[in-house]
């Protein structure tokens, strides 16, 4: 199933190609209780058709009503929901606050080319940094080679990171991997578990997780990793963990980690240098021992440390800043 934001951009492109003006909405920031994260998308056309989500219902209804009344004529404008202030559209029942960018996009070749670039990024072809001017609605994109917040403000412009749905690739099944899968899903990650061992997967039930009965290294070599993928190996089995690391460092994955003590890590890195064909630069991409040092002992505590470290890297935060 396609990620919802990709469906939104493809629908916007189809409407635009059919000669229809579209309004593209992007969640910029949330405060308090809010069901959609920054970067989430919704698109509507002049006939009142729409696709996507901003809040789960109440904001969408207000937006569509305002659109029917002729609001949002500007090329780009900010709309604030939920704080009860003079600029807020309505009070959200959940008590949250939501700020949304609304872009009024005419049916032009330039707009359609821009939407095609966004669709490619959401498919995992490349990561983009999208810049939108609040003054005149001018748009541009460039390759995004850094990690950081999805939305950043720079004067009267907004920088919006656009990429594929965040993916967690679990290299091998273990008690820690199972908890990681549950945590990651709650954080909005697409989760894939790869393990060829039938005995390891016996009785495993993870609704919403794609389970592939193959070596993780083979799946990675086949192209399962894009720039918004985190690869973690948590089995203590070098036949799975080491091979996964050898393949993962050859991909644009933003996070690569493997579980083990300091001594286990030293031995693993020596093997990867000696027989795995990796370089010191390759090893520098691997987080090992994996996760933040939280004094974790149980599978749930270790999984928490792993996901916290993945989020740290995804948000562009150095360890020394913690």
UniProtKB/TrEMBL annotation:
Pfam families for this protein: XdhC_C, XdhC_CoxI
Stated name of the protein: XdhC family protein
Domain XdhC- CoxI: 15-82
Domain XdhC Rossmann stretches: 168-310
Domain of life: Bacteria
Family annotation (InterPro entries): MoCofactor_Util/Proc (IPR052698), XdhC_CoxI (IPR003777), XdhC_Rossmann_dom (IPR027051)
Species name: Aquipseudomonas ullengensis
Lineage, uppermost ranks: Bacteria, Pseudomonadati, Pseudomonadota, Gammaproteobacteria, Pseudomonadales
């Amino acid at each position: 199933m396609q990620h919802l934001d990709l469906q939104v951009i493809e629908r916007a492109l189809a409407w635009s190609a059919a000669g229809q003006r579209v309004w593209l909405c992007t969640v910029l920031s949330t405060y308090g209780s809010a069901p959609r994260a920054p970067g989430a998308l919704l698109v509507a056309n002049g006939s009142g058709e729409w696709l996507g989500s901003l809040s789960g219902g109440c904001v969408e209804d207000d937006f569509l009503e305002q659109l029917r009344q002729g609001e949002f004529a500007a090329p780009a404008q900010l709309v604030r929901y939920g704080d009860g202030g003079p600029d807020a559209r309505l009070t959200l029942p959940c008590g949250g606050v939501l700020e949304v960018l609304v872009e009024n996009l005419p049916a032009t070749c330039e707009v359609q080319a821009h939407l095609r670039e966004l669709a490619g990024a959401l498919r995992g072809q490349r990561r983009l940094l999208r810049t939108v001017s609040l003054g005149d609605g001018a748009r541009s994109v460039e390759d995004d080679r850094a990690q950081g917040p999805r939305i950043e403000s720079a004067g009267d412009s907004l920088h919006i990171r656009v990429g594929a749905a965040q993916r967690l690739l679990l290299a091998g099944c273990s008690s820690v991997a199972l908890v990681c899968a549950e945590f990651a899903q709650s954080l909005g990650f697409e989760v894939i578990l790869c393990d060829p061992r039938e005995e390891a997967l016996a009785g495993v039930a993870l609704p919403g997780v794609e389970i592939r009965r193959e070596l993780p290294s083979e799946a990675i070599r086949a192209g399962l990793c894009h720039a918004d993928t985190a690869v973690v190996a948590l089995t203590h089995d070098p036949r799975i963990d080491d091979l996964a690391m050898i393949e993962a460092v050859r991909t644009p994955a933003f996070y690569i980690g493997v579980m083990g003590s300091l001594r286990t890590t030293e031995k693993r890195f020596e093997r990867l240098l000696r027989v795995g064909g990796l370089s010191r630069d390759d090893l520098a991409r691997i987080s090992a021992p994996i996760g933040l040092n939280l004094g974790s002992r149980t599978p749930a505590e270790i999984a928490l440390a792993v996901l916290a470290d993945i989020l740290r890297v995804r948000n562009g935060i150095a360890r020394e800043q913690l």
